[in-house]
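INFO batch 0412 | record 1 of 1 | parsing
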Amino acid sequence: MHQTFPPPLTDGDQAGRAPPPGVEPVPTAAGWLDARESRTAGLGRSHLFRVIEAGLDPLISVLLLWALAFYVEQSVPAAYLILSVVVFSLIFPGSSQLRVSLRRMLFNVVFQWLWVAALLLLVGLTTGYIDSFSLPVLWAWFWLTPATQLGAHLALRAGAPRLLQWQGAPRRAVIVGMNPQGATLAQHIAGSAYSGLELMGFIDDRSPERSGVKAALPLLGKLEDLPAYVKKNKVQFIYLSLPMASRPRILALLDGLKDTTASVYFVPDMFVTDLIQSRSDSVCGVTVISVCDTPFRGYNGFLKRASDWLLSLLILLMIAPLMLLIALLVKLESPGPAIFRQRRYGLDGEQIVVYKFRSMAVAEDGAHIAQARKNDARVTRLGAFLRRTSLDELPQFINVLQGRMSIVGPRPHAVAHNELYRTLIKGYMVRHKVRPGITGWAQVNGQRGETDTLDKMQARIDYDLDYLRNWSLPLDLYIIARTIRLVFRDHAAY
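INFO prediction complete | emitting tokens
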């Protein structure tokens, strides 16, 4: 029996998962760029369409450039060959446009080409490399490329049914397990016009009434009937959607399917699990699916740290005179150090020392720390202004430069508060899989200031975990922009 475990089956799990009972849904970070649609759009396409769509846009841009260069200059000079390599690397792989509306397809194609063309034009003008090309060729290429790409995508849509016919009859599939994740998978397959799959129905020991799942597909039989049904109906794909606790039943099913040639895919029971940066990986040659991981590995980790280092250095150079002035005013208003140091939890739960301008008459860092409240007697007059405008956080850019913090990330809490809430809120410590931030997704969504109830802290953690699931550099820039705006009108901090 040939067994494979394809990652595409987990791409859309978050889209179909409802929040736990009693927990209010939190606006997702993915929603700000409508990433939810792009994440689920890739489900169910055949490999043939994936290959075609991956190469369509980059190949059109390169071949059209060569054709125009040959038409105008009667040859393809080396400069055009170098440009074609750059363009191909920027565009490949092309995005899928089969399942989006015509209006969205037009926007996607034009937007992608505009930013590529703008980048190339900027580099060409800056380096003078643009003088190596014929302007009529570049001008025609700029206008004809998106038009040709749109025509190619329309042609692919028109020819998709014929391409499916050339691949032969639809491949038959069944889902083992009539449960929420099985029903969600069935919906995704049914919603894809180009999957090349014929979903026969469900296999489960429970009746539809007992399972509590309403599905348009029939119940084909019980688990013991699966091997015989697969052989009789020539089923090619089996999706096991059984709970992870059903290990003995899964092993028995796999043993019974050894006499078939069907490919078996395991649909992890993760629709009820709070996934953080889920991805497939390999450990000593064994395929695993991560349930909770940091988004900052490999290239993403380098990008995050490089942007933090560069931005914090530039910001510190610009605000150095302001920081010196604030430090002097703090010292003049009340006795004590200008910079307040407090222990916080950082990356992987390790303790770090965080810097802030002292805004209180006391400097507390013990086992019991009372959060600042409205009209708190400990807060000085200058301190109240610093806290309201977030100017007390400026020294934390030094923490970012040191590598202890990030500009954007979950806000660090005092160690005493961490020890309290980690026992009360499930998943609290997951937020420490990344460096803490000066600002965060929770803070720009109103979760700033005193967390005097457990619900308020729960809401803050929900936003922090949502940030981990959906991190991107544009999201960081968006949070920074919203933070700057909030500095002048936020009344939640005191």
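INFO post-check: The radius of gyration is 28 Å.
INFO record closed
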